[in-house]
Amino acid sequence: MSVNFKTLRSFVTAVEAKSLSAAAQQLHLAQPALSQQIASLELHFKQKLLTRSSAGVTPTRAGTELYRHAQLILSHLEQAEREVSGRTDTISGNVAVGLATYSTTSTLSTPLLMAVRSHYPGINLFINDNFGLVLSEMVMTGRMDMAIIYASGPMKGVKLEPLLTEELFLIAPPGTELPESDGHTIALAAVDGMDMLLPSRTHFLRQLIDDQCARMRVSPHVTAEIESAATLREAIEAGLGATILPAALAGTFHGSARPVVRRIVEPGIQATVSLCVSDHLPMTEHAMAVLSSLHTLVRELFEVERYAGVHAPSVRGA
Question: By its UniProt entry, which InterPro entries does this protein fall under (predicted)?
């Protein structure tokens, strides 16, 4: 028996059910027939794919790799079936977009929803606010169509298009007194010993901050690592510390008590924001429509900020 969609679906079901008998019931198959399909896959790949025990079945290392690829293959088959059987003149379908947490582009969520609803009402948009490594992995495996992430260098499995460059700011609790500040900028040396709330060390922005601090022999006192914009905002409002991030975070504060915001200088810290798409998976018509809307919003929204006199990131290719 050769590898086909049926055998791949049976294998995926067995892995997810963790039991051949349970998987056979879900597939409406006799268990010996399911076992034969698994055996045919193991014969084809010349690898043991499942380990059987009294507790059920678990994938081997080779089985885990096949499971990952099979999920992707089956998801594309399902998408093809939906698009071919439901083909009309209206652009429709599901599109998943990732936006990097803390980035200025995280403000695009609502405008993108509005633009897609207005121009492509048949598109169901899924937006994920997350961190770059998570989003790029989802794009690479086909679970997400596109993402805007912090990245400048090449990444395996995806193509990166630099969109804009963001400068980082000190964002401190309301009423914080800062040394040697002209009211707009502050030297990086001023954060030496300051209580700081920063992203974790795996975050691209944290790596930029740590590198510059090490170069300048500055040692901020990191009291917490926070990977939630809402939690970080509340912690700053409570006076628990300051952070170094794009100025977009300051715009999320509520009430009359505004945070103290100063652009980091001497040296400045800049981060590249890039559009991330797969380098090996084709993009659907509806995903391309959303991508076009996203490009337009990146250009338009930040031009409005500049016109209004707000310090905006520099936009590439605008």
Answer: LysR_HTH_N, LysR_subst-bd, WH-like_DNA-bd_sf, WH_DNA-bd_sf
Answer left, alpha or beta for residue 162, where phi above 0 means left and psi between -120 and 50 means alpha.
beta
Q: Where are the beta strands (DSSP E) in 173-269?
A: 185-187, 195-198, 221-225, 243-246, 260-265
Tokens found for residue 211: 């590198």
Ramachandran angles phi, psi of 235, nearest 5°: -65, -40
Q: Domain limits of the chain?
A: 5-85, 93-162+276-308, 165-271
The domain defined by 93-162+276-308 carries CATH number 1.20.1250.20: no
pLDDT(312) > 70? no
Residue 111 pLDDT greater than 70, yes or no: yes
Per-residue confidence at 11, pLDDT binned at 50, 70, 90?
A: very high
What is the DSSP-derived secondary structure letter of residue 313? P
End-to-end CA separation in angstroms for the chain:
54
Whether 5-85 and 93-162+276-308 share one fold: the answer is no
Domain 165-271 has CATH 3.40.190.290: yes
CATH 3.40.50.80 fits 5-85, yes or no: no
Residue 247 pLDDT greater than 90, yes or no: no
- Between 62 and 306, the more confident residue is 62
Task: Label residue 118 exposed, middle or buried (CB < 10 Å: 0-12, 13-18, 19+).
Answer: exposed
